Amino acid sequence: MSQSAGYGELIISALVAVGIVRGLSKFLDLPQRLPRWHRLLNYIWVPAAALFLVMAVFKLRSPLIGEGYWLLVLFLLLAVLLALRHYRPARTLLFAMAPFVVYKALELLLDDSNGKLPKAYDAFMDTTQGFVLIWLVTFIFIARSQKKALEKERLLREEDEKAKHLIEAQNVELERLVAERTAALTTQAEELRGALTELRTTQAQLVQSEKMASLGELTAGIAHEIQNPLNFVNNFADVSVEMLDELREEQARPERDLDLEAELLRDISQNLQKIHHHGQRAASIVKGMLEHSRASTGERQPTDLNHLADEYLRLAYQGLRAKDKSFNATLVTDFAANLPQVEAVGPDLGRVLLNLFSNGFYAVRQRQLRGEAGYAPTVSVSTTSQGDEVEIRVRDNGLGIPEAVRQKIFQPFFTTKPSGEGTGLGLSLSYDIVTKGHGGSITVDSEEGKYTEFLISLPINPAG
């Protein structure tokens, strides 16, 4: 072997080592996790440069020098991985590299002075080399998969944090708007201040309560629902201001167009009627939100179940849409005409319906994610009057509930959702509200992979 060949192998080893170190630093995020090791590894070429000078000065030609440098690099990488053993991909890489380092050390020990392996060990070392390379490549792919999984988990956590911050920002903005309107509407100042205080108190209680596990969906739904009437109010108000300016200009002219003035007055009147209509709609949404947030007093009042079911169906849908803009579903309502009002605690029944609707949308979304051809997510609600009782049916064409699970769904803390997506208290609380709070019944009918239907029966005039 020529002296230049020995130099070349050492230079190639140094370049390969620098490349591996850079790749490993990026893969394991060493600048943040181990900044000192990262700075040290940036000088991995220094030992190679020193060996190069020694070879040049003493005119050494042994290839063992390059192999020794390569073994030094491997031991340094093992030390880095050992320092990061708490990190799962690093632990996997440590497991992957250990046989390879042992093999290289054994090869260095068995090589003669010319860097050649004795023939007696050729078959054994070739077999061992194939094994350790397959081992190394396999576990590198495993570490890469683990890295992707951890990165995905990190992104999910970041998305959850962003969603929490968004909800907090919406709550802050909502409180600011309420405060501004309170100042403007002086005749209702005291009433709105009391409502706002009650809202803040109940919000703090609901955040602590498992009854409001779906508070995020409700808040997002309300925000979407209230935005439309507010946009209409603002737009019609702006147009009316422009028409008033145009009317003043026309009245100031020497030759006035009375037909144009009459037309402008009619348009302004129509705009004011629309502003009033959409203002009443916004007030209705805020009133419904306050009623839902207010802690239940247990006082029963005549309740329109058609209106209650329709309101909470849209709120639950908009709440899920706020989390996933790509989700769409068909909402089907079949409300009985002239349905008698039921003596009930409206906010409590609202929580029951919100829970059932939220579960229905979750089920159809999970089935949609399976990618079934021609599948159309659908959630429906219907009401009927049966003698002295009123029935509410909530149906979805989602995943369905297996027979073995169906008997347990009303038990406290039982849930079929993945960890972190359900508390297991929603249906249990709904069952207590319907049966113990209103003297009614709630049952479930389902076929796995096709549909789920909940039937709520409520007496029109419950005893007690």
TrEMBL record:
<feature type="domain" description="Histidine kinase">
    <location>
        <begin position="221"/>
        <end position="462"/>
    </location>
</feature>
<feature type="transmembrane region" description="Helical">
    <location>
        <begin position="93"/>
        <end position="110"/>
    </location>
</feature>
<dbReference type="InterPro" id="IPR005467">
    <property type="entry name" value="His_kinase_dom"/>
</dbReference>
<feature type="transmembrane region" description="Helical">
    <location>
        <begin position="40"/>
        <end position="58"/>
    </location>
</feature>
<dbReference type="Pfam" id="PF00512">
    <property type="entry name" value="HisKA"/>
</dbReference>
<keyword id="KW-0175">Coiled coil</keyword>
<dbReference type="InterPro" id="IPR036890">
    <property type="entry name" value="HATPase_C_sf"/>
</dbReference>
<keyword id="KW-0597">Phosphoprotein</keyword>
<keyword id="KW-1133">Transmembrane helix</keyword>
<dbReference type="InterPro" id="IPR036097">
    <property type="entry name" value="HisK_dim/P_sf"/>
</dbReference>
<dbReference type="InterPro" id="IPR003661">
    <property type="entry name" value="HisK_dim/P_dom"/>
</dbReference>
<dbReference type="InterPro" id="IPR004358">
    <property type="entry name" value="Sig_transdc_His_kin-like_C"/>
</dbReference>
<feature type="transmembrane region" description="Helical">
    <location>
        <begin position="130"/>
        <end position="146"/>
    </location>
</feature>
<keyword id="KW-0812">Transmembrane</keyword>
<protein>
    <recommendedName>
        <fullName>histidine kinase</fullName>
        <ecNumber>2.7.13.3</ecNumber>
    </recommendedName>
</protein>
<dbReference type="Pfam" id="PF02518">
    <property type="entry name" value="HATPase_c"/>
</dbReference>
<feature type="coiled-coil region">
    <location>
        <begin position="142"/>
        <end position="175"/>
    </location>
</feature>
<feature type="transmembrane region" description="Helical">
    <location>
        <begin position="6"/>
        <end position="28"/>
    </location>
</feature>
<keyword id="KW-0472">Membrane</keyword>
<dbReference type="InterPro" id="IPR003594">
    <property type="entry name" value="HATPase_dom"/>
</dbReference>
<feature type="transmembrane region" description="Helical">
    <location>
        <begin position="64"/>
        <end position="84"/>
    </location>
</feature>
